[in-house]
Amino acid sequence: MSRSRVGAAPILAGLAGASVAAASYRLLLRHPPGGAQRWSRRNFRGTEVSLLAGPALAAGLVAGSAVAGGRSGCATAIGVGGAAAFGLLDDLHGGTHARGFRGHLRALGRGEVTSGLVKLVGIGATGLVAGLVIEPRPRDAAVTGALVAGTANLVNLLDLRPGRALKAVLVVAVPTLVGTGAAPAAAVAGAAAALLPEDLGERAMLGDTGANAAGAALGTALAAAARPGARRTLLLGVVALTAASERVSFTAVIDATPVLRTIDRLGRRRDGQP
What we know:
Layout: H1 2-30, E1 40-42, E2 48-50, H2 53-68, H3 70-93, H4 100-109, H5 115-134, H6 138-158, H7 164-173, H8 182-200, H9 207-225, H10 228-245, H11 250-256, H12 258-265
Antiparallel strand pairs: 1-2
Helix pairs in contact: 1-2, 1-8, 2-3, 2-8, 2-9, 3-5, 3-9, 5-6, 5-9, 6-7, 6-9, 6-10, 7-8, 7-9, 8-9, 11-12
């Protein structure tokens, strides 16, 4: 009997994540808070898209994590909630003059507290709480929390082209569908898959709300699936990639690498297509 429940949990979590994300997106499109224009942005090619996919994705992730249950489900809900809330603050009230860790630190040196810095600190704090839920020992909790917050930031750094961030999330989440992190990983995969067509079709974009939420959920799923030593290795990889982003353009690297370029452009509009 217990085997049946364990086997069903990832399926139910994935279905909950997908269905709630899709339903929330449709509902938000019909009744956008503050009006549709508040959520309208221009993407990299100047196409008008909606940021409403971000809150919808976060809703799906929270629903999926609630169905997943247990410590990992609770931690995922905490990490996603914090990442989405602080990402939303940056989406609706943030500026674009300070980018990256160094940009926010420079602004702080001038006496300016940017919304981006508030977001980084806030996601770090909620990531630590999520880490404490998964791993109560302070040292391991700090590593786990840093992994959750760091992955949230890293996925946001990838959200520069349609579908890129969600594809990366799916590529990492799918192998995690086996083992202790299966249910939270299924919630991530389900919610991401539900909104991927809207992102690829350039009708919507994740924004900081969705990208940070997806990253926090992915980081929590990875933490739930890995032992403390493996979490430290994963954190080192996240830190290395984040540091590299300060000096190297991810888009330039992807465009220069045939396999990555093919995956990145799969399903995307071609230039000139409606």
